[in-house]
Hints:
22 helices, mainly alpha
Amino acid sequence: MNIRSVISSVSRIVVVFGALMLAPAAISLMFGEGDWAAFLLSSAITAAAGVTGVLLSAPKDNRRIGNREGIAITTLGWTACALFGALPFILAGSLSTPADAVFETMSGLTTTGATVLMDVEAQSHAILFWRSFLHWLGGMGIVVLSIALLPGLQIGGSQLFRAEVPGPLPDRLEPRIRETAKRLWGIYILLTVAQTVLLRVFGMSLFDAATHAFGTVATGGFSTANKSLEAWNSPAIDMIVTVFMFLAGINFTLHYRALRGNFKPIQKDDELKTYAGIVLAAIALISLDLLAHSRYSLGNTLRHSSFQVVSLITTTGFTTINYDIWPPLSRAILLILMFIGGCGGSTAGAIKVVRVNVLAKHSIRELKRAVYPRRVTVIRLNGKAVPEEVSSAVLAFVILYLSVFLLSTLAMSAMGLDLMSAVGSVAATLGNIGPGFGLVGPTCNYSAVPAIGKWLLSFCMLVGRLEVYTVLSLFVPGFWRKP
Amino acid sequence: MNIRSVISSVSRIVVVFGALMLAPAAISLMFGEGDWAAFLLSSAITAAAGVTGVLLSAPKDNRRIGNREGIAITTLGWTACALFGALPFILAGSLSTPADAVFETMSGLTTTGATVLMDVEAQSHAILFWRSFLHWLGGMGIVVLSIALLPGLQIGGSQLFRAEVPGPLPDRLEPRIRETAKRLWGIYILLTVAQTVLLRVFGMSLFDAATHAFGTVATGGFSTANKSLEAWNSPAIDMIVTVFMFLAGINFTLHYRALRGNFKPIQKDDELKTYAGIVLAAIALISLDLLAHSRYSLGNTLRHSSFQVVSLITTTGFTTINYDIWPPLSRAILLILMFIGGCGGSTAGAIKVVRVNVLAKHSIRELKRAVYPRRVTVIRLNGKAVPEEVSSAVLAFVILYLSVFLLSTLAMSAMGLDLMSAVGSVAATLGNIGPGFGLVGPTCNYSAVPAIGKWLLSFCMLVGRLEVYTVLSLFVPGFWRKP
Lengths: 483, 483
């Protein structure tokens, strides 16, 4: 492990992050609110810490960023941002304990959208902007952003890119990793601007439009209203958000190719087909269940079922209604969607559709092998054979994901949460969704969870956002050993 | 597919099964009860159907029992036994609908122990004996029994053996499969007799002692009392049952070797170590949880926690207490145990400890590979390398198991069960446990489940008992095609 390089790179990310805190300070001044000083001070502390780190570590040999260094930089970079990003919440007086402030920041950065704030509407514009801005930075990835902005991180960039971008098979759009990072951020900004304009046109204020667009394209879920999108109660807004959540759950390389007029990969993409198929099937089943067991009109049934299905499968977590009182089948489907997640290479969390695809194909292959032991077939995705190492890694990913889920659920139960709340809180944070079931359901928040539980759930968010391997690798024996 | 051979073999199993129905008829006569005629008639119908099948199918070539035939014989043999075994319940007037009678029989045969009877204590001795006797036959396996008894089934016996005996790596004790089958049944009978004697000595009637011994060594769970073992309220009996449930959850080949004085394989067995470790850890955690949150004495805490832990991990399902009112951590642990199950090659159901071992080792291997991509290590169990095909099959097993679990839970939710009851009922039947949580918790029974739900849960029991592959293989395209 080249510790100097790691500290140096993490420090650079912290400097970038400190500079980004000037944005909410500007918002504060723009709205004439008093907490600009809190943001300016946080920015100064963060940037100073980052600069100190860069100066003290000064690696002798910049080129020695290997696999392990990439993993360490990503995990520690995110952890550092979650810690420094908590400063404004405390300095501005929004949250009083470190557990609360770090939970809220980690929830923002990891695009979870779970909140401990009792009254969102009582917060200043700057705080609300900061929460949504954290989503937006974490959605495409603060490390990827740093790669795009800082030349110093380019060496070893492909290691960092792999550690941060979701999905088992990250596509490179361009031979140079920095170009890929720039392209991805370009599409991301385009989607954000398009949605902001649409939301503004259909009745939101510009501030609400922009913050909700941040929360949508990052599949985050923080809202500026206590009742989330239910506060606007506008079918048009619900539909816009549904469409953009769906888009944000698609592999961004497909967006890029579509923008360049290349639609062939989209038509061929197995993951996209499965994703769309699951969404449609879930909407159909939940709609039938709601029509049979509740009193919504057909229009409202379709509106709320499609919104909640897309919101939970993309792990966004916006709500238009309290789905926790829906009939058992609908709730069971939503709980399963929380584990599936969006497509690899999107901003969505959880297990990801491509992995579900590999799992399904692997199981069917093995079932066939039990019948015909001598016929061995290869698993194919998008017409290409999936190497055995990849499917092996995918299977292990799912087991590790479920292991973290089970152990954390046990720990949350031990803190006194009832079983449904324990399951819901871990599923919702590990999958970077936000609202869960029970105590942490759509109408409640995480403020009632004990402090130690907030730290554990913050860890779950990080494990989920960095796709398990990146964080758990740090605990592999010998990881920190010198090369 | 050699259909004639399949029908012929299934018919022979049915004949054996019909003959076994004479045992409860004898019990009925012994206790001077009136339902001996129902059992005699059922036996005659079953045997006649079997003999007709044998005569009509008369295969030209007895030797053509391959892999597919073995799978078909096992699945269809079990299904036939579950249907014919339901006759006495209907003819004796204990249960009125086919859904109820088949559910009860399947629950017996698959050693599940879930009941639809409202009042067990109102049943005749013959019916109670039949339920426990079904456990006992299904525990070691009706097909294995037939192999031991009938020379005609010996050809192709190894295929049948593999399809019925639980666990991914069935050990053969003897080169000839029929000898292995006999040895396994020998140990099984020895355990049953030993436990019967002990229970009799510590205060049970001989009838209760024998039926509970059947239910224990088969890890079944049917009791002769409505309140299960709580009715006796005897610490000695609880301890005897706990020990024998634990023994029944161990690979029977280890019992065999121990009886022959060979203790080396036992000391070396990774699965046994993990099994014992999980049991001890679960007892410790639940005891601490109960001491902190409920008012049991230390003695009762240890007694009930060890009994319920062993009862649920071995998928027996006897109860000494209503664990559904225990605090959340204890309930969460019990729910997880319901998925783990006992050791491969035991009578226990669910996923099995050896598979959990393989999953854990595979995940850790892949995690290490993420850190050191160039180092590839082999998974080892009991000092031997586990072939990649085996771990591939184990991973697929778990995914198929969870898929059946999820889809069945959705279906049960659609029938109006609340989420916890839906999860509990499927986990308890698929894992061959018996009592679940909620509506189907330890103090309730399955009579309130709608008829279609009973059929689905009966299917889950069969899928669980025959370890997923054997049943699902029948739906693989081309399975029924002629060779």
